[in-house]
Structures are given as structure tokens and as C-alpha cells.
Amino acid sequence: MAVWTAAAQTAQVSGVIRDEFNEPVTGANIIIKGTYNGTTTDLDGGFTLEMSKPGKVTLLISYLGYKPMDLEVDTGPGENKDLGTIKLKPGAEQLAMVTITAGAFEASDEKRQTLLKPLDIVTTAGATADIAGALNTLPGTQTVGEEGKLFVRGGAAYETQTFIDGMLVQKPYNSNVPNLPSRGRFSPFLFSGTAFSTGGYSAEYGQALSSALVLNTHDLAPKTQTSLGLTTVGLDLSHQERWENSSLAVTGNLTDLSPYNAVIRQNIDWIRPFNSQTGQLIFRQKLSEDGILKVHGDFSNSRLKLNYLNIDDPGNPDNVTLDNNYFFVNSTIREIVNDNWTINGGIAYNYNHDQTLVNTLTLKTTDQMAILRLNASRFLGDGFKIKFGTEYHDQSFRQSIVDEQVLNRRNQYNVRYLAGFAEADLNLGARLFLRLGERLENSDYLNDLTLATRASMAYKLSPHAQVSAAFGQFYQLPESEFMAYSNRLSNEKALHYILNYQYTQDNITFRIEGYYKQYDQLIKYTGDYRYHPETLDNSGNGFARGVDIFYRDRKSIRNADFWVSYSFLDTKRDYRYFPEAAIPVFASKHNLSVVYKHWIDKIDTQLGFTYSFASGRPYDDPATPAINDQRTPDYHDLSLNLSHITQLWGNYTVLYLSCSNILGFRKIFGYRYSSQPDAEGIYYRVPIEPTAPRFALIGLFVYFDHNKKQ
Amino acid sequence: MKKLFFILPVLLLGFNLIGQDYAGTMQSCLEQLGSAATESDYSELATTFERIGLAEQDKWHPFYYQAFCLIAKGFIAEGAEKKDQIIDAAETAIKKAASVGGPEAELAVLQARANQARLSVDPVTRGMQLGPKTTMLLAEARAKAPDNPRVTYLLGQNIFYTPAAFGGGPEKAIPLVEKSIELFKNYKTDDPFAPKWGQEQAEAFLKSVNKENR
After folding, report:
1. Whole-angstrom Cα distance, residue A187 to residue A176?
2. Are A388 and A425 within 8 A, CB to CB?
3. Is A119 close to B86, i.e. CB distance below 8 A?
4. What average pLDDT does range A416-435 have in this prediction?
5. In this complex, is the C-beta atom of A62 within 8 Å of any C-beta atom belonging to chain B?
6. How sure is the predictor about A707, in pLDDT bands with cuts at 50, 70 and 90?
7. Residue-wise pLDDT tens digits, A473-500
């Protein structure tokens, strides 16, 4: 034995372990393969490994988030071998953390690095659980109170498209009459992930000049549950059933603003305030470990009736009725085939019918769209991924105008749209991420073929900071109201350039983003295009540029979370009826939002405030020669909400209270002017304002759990 | 015969150097674990267990204790991102233990503790989902292994820290903790490295709770 021990001379191996930023790695495990022997790196990343005998061994270097590394070392008796600096390569999860941040806001439960959580959308004061309302507190959006829709970086509402599980949603908002805000049709509770792009989005999506709102629905419902919601504006009833590998949820909702409007004075002469019945069916079937089939059906009908001020004859209001029927069904599958391939596909159908009666005139509009989509992506190892796919839309538009039983006009068109895209994700080294894509689109009605290039990159400056940039070409078919009159048009076009810096550390996020957006081929006309469609053309253009700043802090104040968004926007366009380049009425130069949420443990309550500011918006005074040269007063709003969690008959219950504009600021969104001046040459005008200074909502939501475990 | 006597010790020694003494090493590591208290203690032990685990690919105990140490480290460590990273590593170790036949109930307990550590990073946004999820996980584990004292103890503890509005609270929790102490007293296993922790914690927990409620 003694002889043996003496013969076994020792040896030493030492070195320093560093990460991709050349920072020392502390706590990395250095193991002599096949044995228990090893050591850990110290604060400077250094290690010295004593070996009980010299010779050839394999060292295994293991550190969280990095690829395990094998290193062959051969030592002679008594040798002290210095391996110098050893650089670790980030593992797949670490690589996944380098993501494009330019133009992207993501809310997700699954991914940890996102700026928002789905819950944030629900709990933002002033949003009353409306997706657009919550996203309006992010930079890059403009507050346009009379519309209630998303306006992104100087873009009009139609320039933002909504996608559910990848499928385009044609009418994501409720129908409403002009100057009354719409609400989104889809509850934020439906989605486990929301990606809101303020520009430069992926080649996977098209037909949006400014922004893509990509919503991903939940997978299987977690459990069997019945819920009841009672609010001051309606009733919600929903039941979800969970089986081993499938789930089904059925939801019904009745909304009626009559009781509320009877109590709270409205500055509108309602005959029948907004009321709707909606139903929803959600089915999920697990196909395999990662594969799932999702079927989502949504239908609704709504109506409203009011006396709408006739600006040219104030004593004699127009009698307006609006009826809407809506149907959306979406069926998608996702499946991972043999580890490397992911297949996504779906089929969807959109139907929307609006019937508007103005005195004796009836306007009927029907929009339909069938969608087929198939995507495939493949991992090629080492952070390389390719994705490609195709999308087909069959869209039809029908409109008729009937006045006193006489058919004045009928318009209709059909578009078949075919698109294909390919995109490559490249991790070049550990810190640089590149995404390159091309999208080819063709629509037969306009006979317009377009090829759009999209490119974006992210570069990690340090573990917490990165810069990201994006460039992209975006095409969108003209709005229906124009395509119904002419097929001698082309796609409208936008070019985006975005540069972003983001810093994230331990629940604090700061980001600043500059952008330049160039519009081209915008629809323009002179006079009334409905009678002179030959004046419609694509000669319009414009630009938008600005800076968006976002700061979020969930660390500094205990149990509190707040974010501040500021957007600066400089935009002008020469489009539609504009005689010259001007600022569109929906664009305000400065937008600021401060969102604050505080969780009060003792009373199980979350309290939230949102303050929004927007500088005055342009409006056109017909008495002045220039267009849109006047400005409304600045916009201020302070909203409050309260969610109290409690139990009713042993069931999880949320009591919800919210109120907008608690300080009662007067909000003027613009003015309506009479078409002709009076005898003294003065145009009569009325301000466009909310229907009431404040909107309050009280709701009680009870969740009946059917399989209680306790 | 004489030859054999001569070779035997050499062979054994050879084994010690290559295959090493699994039982002895585990024994001494578990002793060290008994007195571990600081972040670096747990860090050091986690890497040691990892080494043993990587050399003994078919045994679940080293991975179990690697995860155990990482979770303990995760509770102590500061900084949201760092905590999350440590818990990620712990979850990887739990998965490894599961893949080589680690007992479901014990791994559910570890996963529950990992969830609790994650929840502590951001109780306001994570509590709503992770709290009930953890309770569900433990309730399922308890249905399968009603005699495992750690499952029962952790279930009680998790319910205790769940707000009453979410279906938690002391009234539901304390009987479970009391029950777990009874189970601890009767708990027997032939496995020398099986998890044995929990009784002291459960007793201390009950004591502190009773003090508060007095």
C-alpha cells in the first residue's frame, strides 16, 4: 500500500473561466470526468485542481445557462498546468434571451424577460380590461379618445392589425357610430401571450402599415370552473370543462348600457343605448406532448339608436340606428415533429355585417374573409432557425345604399390574397442576434405584387443592456371604402427604421427608442371619390418620426409597480382629401402615461392609478385657409381602479371598481363644423367630447371551482 | 490463495480511485449538508453533489440533493434574476433525478419548494398563479403518497401562506402540519440516503404559528 501511494505522484491544473462578455464566472463546476473529484471557480473565475495522479483526463466544465464543455488535459508527474482563459458558450436558454426589442412589446407568462405580464393588461387603471386601452399606456401610441382604438406612431387605426393565434382578425373592435369610442371584441383574459409591435415586425405578418398586435390564446383550460360576472353594464356567464387531454369553454355575455345611462347623465340623446349579446366557444385538444388543436368561435350582435346632432341643422337631429352582426371562427394546430420541425396552421372565417339607418337612408355593409395559413419552422442547431409559410385570404366586401326604398348604389369587390414568407434567425456568437426575412404578397383584385424585406438585430452590450435595430418594408391594401370604388390602386406602403436601447435588471426596465417611418403610395383623392372614383390614386405620402421612452420599476417601492411612458411624435402626411401635407387629426405631439399599481396585503386589494396626458390635437377650422392648423386643448385623465379579492360562499371572488377621469378634466377631441357659414360668415361648431365626463364600472366576478382539493 | 489476498486490496484501492466510495462520499456530504447555513455552503455542496451525480449517472440521490442545495441557495440569494437562474438549475436537477427513477412524492416536494422560492421573487404577480399551482401539485402528490410526511408538511405550509381569499389560511393549514408531525414519527425507510429532513422544521413551524395565534 505504501509503495502504491508513493508511486502516485500528483499534478495540478489551473485556469480562469470567463463568459461571453469576458467577465469572470464564479461558481462554475470543474469536474474530472468519471470521478467525484473537482473544484469550483472563485470570485475571479480562477480554479486550481489537484489531481491525485498525473496523466490524461477529461475535464467537464459545467455552469448554469452555459453549454457544458469537455476539455482533454494531459499532465506529467508533478506538473502544474495552466490552461489560461477558458471561454464558456451560452446554452440554448441563454441564447433565447437575446431577443429583438426594437419595436416590440411583449406580455407573456411563459417567457420571463418580457416587459409585461398578461395580468398587467387586465389590471391597468383606465383600460377597463380592454386590450387597446391597456396598450395605450405604452410608448408609441397616441390617445384618441373618441375612437378607443390603437393609433401607433402617427399611423391611423386601420394601420394596426390584430392576429389571434396567427390568424388575421378583420374587425377587432365593436361597431360604433362616429365619435363614440369602440371597445375591443376580445377579452384580455383569453390570452396567455401578447406581442404588440410598434414597428419593424416579422415577415411572418403582413397587411399592416404600422403595427401588428399578435395575441396568443391559452392552451388547455387549467380546471373545470364556472364563473359569473355581474357588472353595472351587463352579465357574463361562463363554464369551462377540463378533461385529461381536452377542454371546452362556453361563454355568454349580455351588455346593456341603458340602466347605466339612465342613472348617469349623458350628453347624447340616446333612444336605445348600446346593447349586445355575445357568445364564445373555445375548444382545446392536446394532440401530443407539444401538439395542440385550438378552436375558437365568437359571435355577437349589437345595436344602438340615438338622435345624432345634425351639425347643419342643430334643431333637427338625425335619427341613427346601428345594427351589427359578427362572427369569427378560428381553428389552429401546432405540432412539434421530430424535435426540429414545428408546424403551425389554421383556417379562419371572419364575418361582419353592419346596417346603419340614418333617417330614411339605409347603409348595409358586409365584410367576409376566409383565411388559410401554414407555417413551418426548423431549428438547425446552435441558435439557427428558419421559418417559412404561406397565407391565403379570400375577402369580399358588399355595400348597398338605399334611400327611400330606392337603391342608390351598390358596391362590391372580391380580393384573393396570397402571401409567402421566409425568415432566418441567426445567433452569431453569443451576443449578436440577426433576423432576416422576405415577404411576397399578391392580390388579384388590384393585380399588385409586392416584395417586402424585413431585417432586425439585437446586440447584447452587457448582461443587462442591449441595442436593437429594425428595418422593414410594409404593404397594406387600401381600405375597403376605396377598393369598393376602384381597382386601379396599389398597396399603400411604409418603411420603418428603428433603433432601440434597453436596460433590464431585477425588475427595473428602461428603454428608449427612436424611429423614422416613411409613407408612400397612400390613397389620395380630390372631391367626392364616390361619384368620381377616377380621382382616386396612390399619390399620397408622409412621414412620422419620434422618440419613445419607457421606464418600469417593480423594485423600488414594496408591493408596488409603476411605469412611465413618454412618446414624442412629429408627423405629417399628404393623403386622402388633404390639399397639402398636414398633421392628421389623430396625431398629438406629446403623449405621457404614468401607471401605478399597489398591492395592499392586509385587505387583499390592488389599487391602481393611471394618469394620461396628450398635447393638443389638430383640427381643421374651415374659416382658415390652412388644413388642420388649429389645436385642441391638452388632454388630461386620471383614472382609478380597485380589485378586491375575497370569497363568496367559499368561492374565489373579485370585486372590481373603476372610474375614469376622477378629477373631471374637460376632454375635447376636436370639433364638428357646419358645412356652410351662416349669414355673418361664421361656421357653427360643437366640440367632440366623451358622452359623460366620467365612466364608472362596478363588477363582481365569482369563480365556482368544481374540484376543490381541500 | 495467498495471491488473491495480495490482489484484493489492490483491486479495492483501484476501485476507490476510479469508481470511488459512493456510500462514504454521500455520507460525508450529507453530514456537511446538516451543518450548511450560508449561500456559499449550499453552493459548494450543490457542485459536489453535481459531480457525484455526473459520475454516477444512474442514481437519483445526488441530483435530489443538488436540487435541494440549489433551492436553499435560491432562497438566500439576492436579486430577482439570480434567484430565477438558481431555481432554473434546481429544476434541471429535479428533472435529472426524475429521469433516473427518483420517487415522485419527494421530487414533488422539491418542485413545490422551487415554486415557493420563485414566488418569493415577486409575490404580487407570481403569487396568483404559483400559489394555487403549488397547492395543486402537493395535493396530487399527497393523494398518491398519503404517508409521506414532507408532502403533508409542505402542503400545510403552502396553504398557510396562501391568503384566505385564495382558499388558504391557518385553519386549513395547521391540521395538515400536525398530521405531518405524526407521519414523521412513524416514517421508516431502508434507503440510507433517502430524504429525512422536515420534522424539526414542521415542529418549529407549528410552534411559531401557535405563538402567533396565542
Report:
1. 18
2. no
3. no
4. 92
5. yes
6. low
7. 999 999 999 999 999 999 999 999 999 9
Q: Tell me how close the Cα of B143 comes to any Cα of chain A, in angstroms.
A: 10
CB-CB under 8 Å, B50 with A29: yes
For residue A40, the chain B residues in CB contact (below 8 A) are 43-44, 47
Task: Report how far apart, in Å, the C-alpha atoms of A43 and of each of A17, A37, A69, B50, B87 are.
Answer: 10, 20, 20, 20, 21
Q: What is the pTM of this model?
A: 0.87
Is the sign of the CA dihedral B65, B69, B75, B77 positive or negative? Answer: negative
- Which one of B43, B51, B125 has the shortest CB-CB distance to A36? B51
The torsion of the CA quartet B115, B121, B127, B133, rounded to 10 degrees, works out to: -10
Letter for the amino acid at A627? I
- Would you call A35 and B18 a contact, using CB atoms and an 8 Å cutoff? yes
Provide the number of CB pairs (under 8 Å) joining chain A to chain B.
88
Chain A residues with CB inside 8 Å of B77's CB?
Answer: none
- Is residue A56 packed enough to be buried (19+ CB in 10 Å), middle (13-18) or exposed (0-12)? exposed
* pLDDT, tens only, A113-135: 677 777 787 788 888 888 999 99
Cα separation, A325 vs B71, in Å, equals 54
Give the minimum alpha-carbon distance from A154 to chain B in angstroms, rounded to a whole number.
33
What whole-number percentage of chain A has pLDDT above 70?
97
Bridge partners of A237?
A228, A252
Q: Residue B105 CA to chain centroid, in angstroms?
A: 11
pLDDT at A616: 96
Q: Could you tell me the three cell numbers for A425?
A: 434567425
Verify whether the Cβ–Cβ distance B172 to A507 is below 8 Å: no
**ipTM of predicted assembly, 2 dp:** 0.77
Which residues 644-703 on chain A approach chain B with CB closer than 8 angstroms?
645-647, 652-653
Interface of A with B in 597-626 (CB under 8 A): 599, 601, 604
By DSSP bridging, strand A590-600 and strand A29-32 are unpaired
pLDDT of residue B185 exceeding 50: yes
